[in-house]
Structure to design on (227 residues):
């Protein structure tokens, strides 16, 4: 158990809909990262939050947005869903330490299926 | 883009050591090398990381060459449960953040 919790584990929804994925980081971790992994694809970095602030964006679509709340949990919002958005969505958290080299711990993911 | 190069696949007999290589020729002096693995559709699992010294933990050993341009992850006694995709990563700097950036990794199959 990595200590990172993602809900829901599975989500099935229709095209055009909007969904919210939730991530609770490990206790004390200030950084949250979101990734998308499509079938047989690698992990694509979407966005990074640190202590409530957006710090870096990757290949995140404009239809997608995220935020990190004061209690440090994070939500990834996906709207106007398309079939191609079907994927595993992972979040990871890491602890702040001097310097940038800290290991990240991943949740078990949310499997999104758009029908 | 990932800054590492790994063979796409490897196989290993159960009980033998699995040695997974990784090239990171553009690594800079203060960048660590991290290894993760992903067992079919589960969340990636952190294994080990290192800067320039060899490292060992309960899961694996990490051997980093003296010039730091390559490393090898060693699973000393591979089991069937070690079948997974193994990722060697160097975190990519982006706007002050250091992002774990994954390539395609090495698909390790441990066979009986």
């Amino acid at each position: 158990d990595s200590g990172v919790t993602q809900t829901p584990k599975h989500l099935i929804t229709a095209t055009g809909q909007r969904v919210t994925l939730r991530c609770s980081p490990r206790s004390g971790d200030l950084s949250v990262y979101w990734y998308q992994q499509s079938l047989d694809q690698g992990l694509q970095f979407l966005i990074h939050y640190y202590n409530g602030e957006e710090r870096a964006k990757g290949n995140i679509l404009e239809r997608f947005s995220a935020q990190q709340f004061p209690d440090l949990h994070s939500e990834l919002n996906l709207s106007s869903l398309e079939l191609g958005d079907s994927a595993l969505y992972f979040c990871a958290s890491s602890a702040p330490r001097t310097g940038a080299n800290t290991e990240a711990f991943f949740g078990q993911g949310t499997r999104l299926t758009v029908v | 883009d990932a800054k590492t190069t790994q063979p796409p696949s490897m196989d290993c007999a159960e009980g033998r050591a699995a040695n997974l290589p990784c090239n990171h020729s553009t690594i800079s002096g203060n960048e660590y090398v991290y290894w993760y693995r992903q067992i079919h559709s589960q969340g990636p699992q952190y294994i080990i990381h290192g800067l320039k010294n060899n490292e060992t933990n309960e899961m694996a050993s990490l051997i980093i060459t003296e010039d730091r341009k390559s490393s090898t992850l060693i699973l000393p006694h591979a089991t069937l449960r070690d079948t997974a995709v193994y990722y060697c990563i160097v975190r990519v700097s982006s706007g002050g953040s250091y992002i774990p950036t994954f390539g395609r990794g090495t698909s390790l199959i441990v066979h009986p």
Notes: Residues 88 and 107 of chain B are 12 Å apart (CA to CA). The mean pLDDT of chain B is 90. The longest strand of chain B covers residues 84-90.
